[in-house]
Amino acid sequence: MPTTLLRHRALSALLLLPLTAACGGDAGPDVDTPKGPGSLQVHIYGESFIEEGIPADEFSDGWSVSFERFEVTLNSLTIMGDTTEVGQSFDLSQASEGQGQQVTTLELDQGAFSGLDYQLGTLEVVGQAEKDGVTKTFAWTFELPTDYESCDSPFEIYPGETAAVELTIHGDHLFFDSLATGAEAPSLIFDHLAGADANDDGDITRAELEATGVGALDVGNYAIDDLWNWLDAQSMQVGHVNGEAHCH
């Protein structure tokens, strides 16, 4: 084969090498990598204990509790220092088939997030307790607000996709038998509240609770000597995230 033709073919092969490399192998970090914002969907949920009630086998003294209304006001939501004012009330006693109620959907930049803060305002609880044919009703309003900070709720935002986080409200915490920080597996009790119904009309009022001492209940580090302030302190413990994850 003539030398000139050989050189021509070799040069053609060299010229094709960059094109071949660009069409196959590693495309590099900036090729076909999606960038941009994603979404975070926020729900608030009271779980089955609020939607369906707390059965008697959950209480150590045999009572059961159901809620006609369990309404919380969500004042604000803060993610990475960016606060969204919500100012909306949610009746968590309404059935949601385990989905909770939608609060908002936020657009966030791509990345991993390690937590959030939120503030609850007023909490209104209306319901009844039953045991051995006895019924006690209650309608209590707690004026919080309570800040739940640095909640253990990591999530990651991907471009064009929607992540989710749940603000979980635990109605059973109102009936814990201890306010001690870090108390392990507190029991649910209602006898002390039922006993506060001094006129025995079946309705447990704030005035009756204020007039009743805490007895042997574990108040922890709180300076509490009546059942209304006991319940008020318990109302500040109801907020969690994603089920059982804790906040400060």
TrEMBL record:
Keywords: Signal
Superkingdom of source: Bacteria
Protein name: EF-hand domain-containing protein
Signal peptide: 1-21
Species in which this protein is naturally found: Lujinxingia litoralis
